[in-house]
Amino acid sequence: MSATMDNMLKQTVESLLEHPQLWRGARRSAPHVIASGHAELDASLSGGWPGGALTEILLPQPGIGELELVLPALLRLGRERRWIALIGAPYTHRSPAWQNSGMNLSRLLWVHPRSARERLLAMEQAMRNGTCGGVLGWSDGSFGTRELRRLQLAAEHGNCMGILFNVQTKAGQMSPAALRLRLECNDEPEDESLTIHLAKGVRSQMVKIPKLMP
């Protein structure tokens, strides 16, 4: 190849690399994570919950320990003086988990939507505006792939840790969430722990952690 052709090829490649619509993988920054407070889980999640993204947690029913699972991360976000929004939570601020958590309850925003549409809009706006460090929402199973995609984009836009507690029957539905896991409660008296089935975003595996609250 002549020197002239070599220079022309080099200039063409450099021009293409500077094109604003070209994505270069090397320029992508490392994902921001928020430590979960559970060493084994953090090891499986490469450091913790994904920040600026949506995590979908599938439950057989609310109240099996999902709140205790994310409380350590919420405490960290609370210390950063960012708001924590709870959308459609089946709990109140008087629940033992909140009372015993050490959380500054004045930093919690409680939103009680009257419909699935209001629930979606509340979660989307809370994550997108950038003032909330964490947004937790409880779904009745009415959100489809399109709605989850909207929540994922909102979490990215607002750099917010979004958590959607969804019904277990959605396991067969495609999910655009950055991380997806399924939570089970071990009811045996001698085994008070939570089993976490990690699915999307990490290598499929199970993690068992002790319950934070009796």
Helix and strand arrangement:
Layout: H1 3-17, E1 33-34, H2 39-44, E2 49-50, E3 53-59, H3 66-79, E4 83-87, H4 96-99, E5 108-111, H5 116-128, E6 132-138, H6 145-158, E7 161-167, E8 179-185, E9 193-200, E10 205-210
Parallel strand pairs: 3-7, 3-8, 4-5, 4-6, 6-7
Antiparallel strand pairs: 1-2, 8-9, 9-10
Helix pairs in contact: 5-6
Notable features of this structure?
214 residues, alpha/beta, eight-stranded mixed beta sheet, Rossmann fold, 31% helix, 6 helices, two-stranded antiparallel sheet, globular, single chain
Outline:
The chain has 214 residues and is α/β, with parallel strands linked by helices.
The oligomeric state of the chains shown is single chain
Mean pLDDT, nearest integer? 79
The largest pleated sheet is described as: 8 strands, mixed
CATH architecture title: 3-Layer(aba) Sandwich
Strand order of the largest sheet: 5-4-6-7-3-8-9-10
Strand and helix order: HEHEEHEHEHEHEEEE
The helix tally amounts to 6
General shape = globular
CATH class: Alpha Beta
- Fraction in helix: 25-40%
